[in-house]
Amino acid sequence: MFKFLRGKLSNFFVKSNRLVLVRHGESEFNLKNLFCGWHDTPLSEGGLQQSRTIAAAKLLEAKIGFDKVYCSALGRSRQSADVILAEMKSSYLPVVLDWRLNERHYGNLTGSNKRQVADAYGEQQVQAWRRGYDEIPPPIEPSNSYYYAILNNLAFRNIPVGQFPLSESMHMCVDRVKPIWEEIKKEVLQGKRVLIVAHGTVARALVQHIEDLSNEDIVKVNVPNCVPIVYEFDLRTGDLIGNSTYLGDAQYIENMKDKVAAIGD
Ligand SMILES: O=C(OP(=O)(O)O)[C@H](O)COP(=O)(O)O
């Protein structure tokens, strides 16, 4: 009876719930400035450290806890989540791996150095591939060094026939992410405290859905590694309350956004 009343009372008072979105820590491919997408690169030493000292530290500082974690089927997302959870003494939490949260497939650009591609095709074309909304990079070919590793990755074995991409635009990624986002949002609105550990383009796709941004506005968004983005939802209406909050030092975050936006060396 007491438990029942306590539940009723907390339902009466608790009217909002938070959701946290984090891009995984720096990967080996991020470090080498290579297009990565569906290639399963591990985190770099720096990326492991960012997961501890930026993502987990800022979440602990903000006293934000979780009930459930969503990751992609790519190892770097899970690796970052594991480090964050260990640091938060929350390794017991359920972690769901879902391929629909995989990074955008970068097609035949996979494995290429971004600066070298810019030297060959021009900066404008590279930025159109990286930050255009409908631009689809050329499909990955069997001659690409990562073609077979991606195709035969057992982490992708549950992908329905016909849905395994050979390349994706931002737009395709936004469409792919929509159903899993709707599933996650339902849980958030039921009061589950969810952490999503995702990737650069997938994080932007989620941001577009969450903030209802236009196609023109979302292409200007850049998500740094390991900076938690916090959202708050009204549990009754399902609407977003206020704006996103990026946890961390404002100047550091701006510098990292600029770094992510740039083609790099
Ligand atoms: O795999 C990638 O994203 P990830 O490091 O977030 O998984 C991309 O290569 C990021 O590159 P971009 O910032 O040029 O889109």
Automatic annotation (TrEMBL):
Q: Which InterPro entries match?
A: His_Pase_superF_clade-1, His_PPase_superfam, PG/BPGM_mutase_AS, Phosphogly_mut1
Feature type site, description Transition state stabilizer? H199
- An example of a Pfam family matching this protein is His_Phos_1
Instruction: Spell out the reaction equation it catalyses.
Output: (2R)-3-phospho-glyceroyl phosphate = (2R)-2,3-bisphosphoglycerate + H(+); (2R)-2-phosphoglycerate = (2R)-3-phosphoglycerate
Q: What SMART domains would the database entry show?
A: PGAM
Positions bound to substrate? 23-30, 76, 103-106, 114, 130-131
Q: Does the keyword Phosphoprotein apply?
A: no
Tell me which EC number(s) this protein carries.
5.4.2.11, 5.4.2.4
Its recorded name reads: Phosphoglycerate mutase
Q: Which organism is it from?
A: Drosophila albomicans (Fruit fly)
